[in-house]
Design the sequence.
């Protein structure tokens, strides 16, 4: 039996490289974080755009994903790929950025 190349061995060699020069690594990882953030934002936007195009195709475009009410035309003009009405978007933003823990415990309570 042959063993597949070990992921652990790969991880060890990466770790050794990272500790080679801590100052260098901090700078590099900060730059990488910014790049990842930009990439994240871009892929989130392109995902939303694709989803909006799909909703146009299936006729659900302009309806809130949460409450299925129509999204205000003014909002759609500003954000054509909007997935939620203003009320639901504010709720979603609030729970993800400020109250991540609260929403987790709410999920937990709901499941129980
Ligand atoms: Zn809504």
Sequence:
């Amino acid at each position: 039996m042959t063993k597949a190349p070990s992921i652990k061995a790969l991880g060890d060699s990466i770790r050794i490289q990272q500790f080679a020069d801590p100052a260098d690594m901090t700078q590099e990882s900060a730059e990488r974080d910014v790049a990842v953030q930009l990439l994240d934002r871009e892929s989130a936007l392109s995902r939303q755009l694709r989803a909006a195009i799909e909703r146009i195709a299936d006729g659900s475009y302009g309806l809130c994903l949460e409450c299925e009410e129509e999204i205000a035309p003014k909002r759609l003009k500003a954000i054509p790929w909007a997935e939620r009405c203003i009320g639901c978007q504010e709720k979603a933003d609030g729970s993800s950025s400020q109250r991540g823990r609260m929403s987790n415990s709410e999920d937990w309570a709901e499941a129980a």
Remarks:
- The pocket of zinc ion is lined by residues 64, 66-67, 69, 84-85, 87-88 (CB under 6 Å).
